[in-house]
Structure prediction request, 504 residues.
Amino acid sequence: MKTTVLGSGAVLLLGIPLISYFVAPSLKKATGKWVDFGAIDDLTPGSIEMLTYEFLVKDGWLVLPQRGFVWAKTNQDRAIKVFSSTCTHLACNVIWQEEANHFICPCHSGRFDSHGNPVAGPPTKPLSTLESKIEEENLLVYLTF
Amino acid sequence: MNRATGISHVTLIEYLSLERIVKRLSVLTVPADALTWHRFFGALLLSLLVLLFLSGAFMAFYYSPALGSAYDSVDYALFSLPFGGIIKGVHHYGWNLFLIVLGAHLVRAFVVSAYKPPRQMIWVSGVMILLFVPLFIITGDLLTWDQKGFWSTQVRLSIIGSIPFIGDLLVRLFQGGPLTGIVALTRFYVLHILFLPGLLAFLILIHFHFIKNNGLSYSFSSDNYSTKTVRFFPVIFNRWLILFMGITLVLGLISWYWPAPLGDPADPTDSSYVPRPEWWVLFLNQLVTIFTGSFSVVGSVIIPGGLAGLLIVLPFIDSSPERHPVRRKRVMLCAAIIAIAILALSIMGYLEHFSTPHV
Prediction:
């Protein structure tokens, strides 16, 4: 009985600081920021184009460039919709194939149509659309990380 | 008697207070059928583990777990050091072989009913080890920081992340945040070389504890079981040494002919890289592909979890004293169906990922 109490005391004494120490960075909320993708005049109406980004992200004790890309769909009326490149199945990057008129995920052959809706393969959720806005003729996209 | 020191072996043993251990070892005997070929899987696993520990520990001398440095440090150890390729190769081929032998060890124990009372806990502790091993691969693959390691990690983490309710938290705990960056690499590194090996050693100790107290399973011709025994030291021990040298040579030669792979440095933007699942995980990967939508949980959690659970509780479901596989038709049939399903899924996965060209 005495040993149980003392033992539990020892476990708590060690456990609380050690587990907090280990877990802390995992509980940080995801943050995001508006990333400038340049002039909207550079986008071709009626097409889907790959826009790459690179910005600095603080990862623990390092500030490193985070690189990636998004897909910008520009309609004939110049309305812009931005899709995340992350496949909703297992997070591979989807690629827009003009000839096939589909986004294709190379990992498990998932396909999405030009609206981002899944049409074939394992994915069932549509590609997520990213919040975007136009400021001073530049396209800004809100990226979370 | 050692002429230089004048200390005999006997007194040296006394100085080191080893009399009791030496005496216990000298009278320790095991059943003679411990020397049959299919009983060598355990010893082989132990040999492989020693090789994995050694090669890993020495690779750590040259490994630098930091972005921008990790890949180069692996490259340096691989190409600029004597035996660099062989030591990495032994580690690489070693764990692949370890998985195969682990499977054989399990199949053998199943076929000869080594899990029947009183040896249930030997089986359970063994299955725990089996379920624990993938953690080594998940954490180890990222360390080279090459394309394959990085992108395989992404796929594995998103499978873990698809577990309902706790998936996202698990991934964050594992990576120390949302990114696969420096915090994640450091975590994977310290888990791979410190925490996991420590836990594994503990699990193996438990496995041995149960073996020691419950004994090896009897051979089917149990009439000569009680009569023939061999001494553990030196008979069994010498066999282990031969086995160890043999497997070291084999792995060394394989690594010499086919150097361990090291891909291009990881590039998180390179979407053209398609991570191909490894052979041991093909069936799980295929399960994840088959079940989609709201059923995806079935493929990613329920079936794998069910299988793991079934393995663990097997000795308690099938506790009949019947041991010969011919007289355990129902159990053998169930196992055969599961084995065929796993094999079929693996072949499907292989065909999908390795033989069809990707667009």
Remarks:
- Chain B has a mean pLDDT of 87.
- Chain B is about 65% helix and 0% strand.
- Chain B has two domains: 31-270, 277-359.
- Residues 277-359 of chain B form a domain with the Helix Hairpins fold (CATH 1.10.287).
